[in-house]
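Aim 2 progress update. The chain analyzed this quarter is reproduced below.
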Amino acid sequence: MHINDEDKPEVQFSFEELPALLPGATDDFSTQGQGESIHIEFDESIDKAERTDYIAAAAIGAFSGILNIFWQKQFDLSEAHAWGKEKTESFVFGFAKSLGFKSDGKDLKDAIRFLENMFPLASDKLTPEFGGGLQHHLRDFAHHPSPVGLLMSILSQFTGKGYGVDTYGAFKMLDLPADALIGKTFSEKVFYGTIVWAGHLISDMAGSSGALGEGVGIPGPILSILKELSALPIFNNEGADNAFSKWISKLFNGTLIRDANGNPIRIDFRTELGVANQMLSQTKSVIANECLVRGYYFLSRLKDELSRNDVHSWKDLERIDVKRVIPTNERSLTRMLTISSSVFVLTNLGIAAGKAALASKGKREKFAGELLLNLNFAGIARMTVAVASDSKYIAEDLKDYLNKRVKEMDAFTEDFKLLRLDDREARLLFSYQAIAIKKDIELTKNKDQHAAKSAWLEEFKTKQADQMDCDAATYFLDEESAAEEMRKASSEDTSSWTTLLAMELWLFKPYYPFNDDWKGRLKGVKYKNDYAGKDFPNVQAVIDEKKIDDVKKAYKRFTDLLTGTRTRTAIIAGGTVAIGIVTAGTAYILAPVIAPVIAGEVVAGLSGAALTSASLAAVGGGSLAAGGLGMAGGTAIITGGGALLGMATTGGTALISSLGEHAEQYTLNQCAQLLTVCQQLPKDSSSTSSFILRAKDQIERVRDKCLEHIDTEKAKGKECKRKTVKSMTKAAKYLERCTKELQKLSDNTLKA
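Predicted structure tokens:
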């Protein structure tokens, strides 16, 4: 996320993918699943004063969160009810006296009776129908201190009906008896529906005259609204209890919650009033946090203005820009309040969790309740408001960030276009891979293996077509159509795509398991057809046998250079296997391992160039069709070592680190591919040299990340994963040698 508006601060949030547990993983991986860590750091371009603002905001938030320990009262419903009862009784008695009630020798019961006689509510006549003395204040909506309660009271005056819910919680209307207080004129109806209604609710707050104090009062505004919502059709099934409505009734009756002594606690108006009072205690620290942030903002801006305007006297104060000093809704202040309130909530959450852990004594069911009692809900509300106020700026920051990422991806497309296959070229590659598999299936005599290979081919075609957002039934070309398309593509484009296609086809190793279910099905299944070396050069006229041989020799030569060995290599059907280490086809062999590491299950089942492209797209935020940044601005697939370069460009330099003990093989394969492609590029082109040098810089970035991870792992001592360190050490060595070879290739290109 970036903020970059003239002198405004800029904050950078970098995201790095973390490894998932790989299929069949060894002790290099200790936890399952995948996730992401978020590293928040300041961009180097941020002014130090702006950094100080955010650090100060965070510090103030933490300080206010600690102050809250001393100011906030823990929620106690018993205490809340007792406090609300006292205040309610005092108010009712005072209200009655203000209307002429003579208090000489008389108590609260008399005051309530006085108010009941003065403010008779029409729907009181329906008390039995709405559940009697225990329930009618809750079931009868006219007894609710809410907008709906006022509306139902007025409506009763004009319709002669009472409105509420039945035993099951379903909404019902009842005719008022003839002796109910109904106004005769419009004015009387309005007066009885509003003023009399309000007076009657006051008379019922402290209980009725017949059941004083702990008698049934009226529901509070919150419980009233909940009861009204429970009457909606979505909560009601004909002939069945409304569970939501029943739960609310239990809250009101006191049968759901009890105090430490087992006494029932009614959640009525008195209790809600007490809870509101307890919540007010939470606002002290929230207000303090707000004042401290705004105070800091004022003093820091005043200091800057005094310095900027060279103020040395009272008269010089006239030069100060007041707008720069006053802590109003300026962008920097808004962001400071977001940071401060967020840190406040996090601090409170940590303290609340600690208190809950001590109070619950290991009982999980009690922990949640204790946690809620210690949370500062006023602080949470303030953070919500702060984030909402900052949302406009956050949206702007996100837009700037995404634009920057798009530019980076566009730059990748331009800089590394020599490693890409466009849609047409990708279709040719996948078609020839499918043809190669089909040829191999035709040579397979074993029925079980023949069936397994056929099923694998269909799954392969489906996954590759899905990656290209095409229909598998029409996407793949037959051999004759592919040859014609090769001819057209060759006449229109002179880029390096033929080298990339030849290398990908030669390295192709089918029959890898898409997932664990495929492991058993593919037992004993092997690819025995050398289509790339024998058939392919003869079925099209663009890539001849010499081209294939050149790619093979270059790949083998660079593999030897990277490993530091001249080990003889055996050329077998479908690829190259170096004695002691497998290199060719690693991107396919390790596909089930690599996919979850790079981008999760979203790319599972892909391999080779398709896997690389889908993974880079995932790092870039998803495909263009899905609303993400896409892979390199619409590039179909990336090959030829593009995974290493792309990961360095998009911020996913932790790829090699994530591969653990598989890093060695994967890195060797990618580096050998990159060097092979670079060698095949035009030797007298300045653009070739420029590309190779840019590639060298990217590989160096990946190497540095690899070395950092090695140091981090070694620092763990006995917990160090030795296999991972060993594999990554070799990977780092391959990367280092790769950069040297790239430098040589660049120099040779300039000399040509």
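The chain has 29 helices and ten strands. The longest strand covers residues 11-17. These observations will guide the mutagenesis experiments scheduled for the next reporting period.
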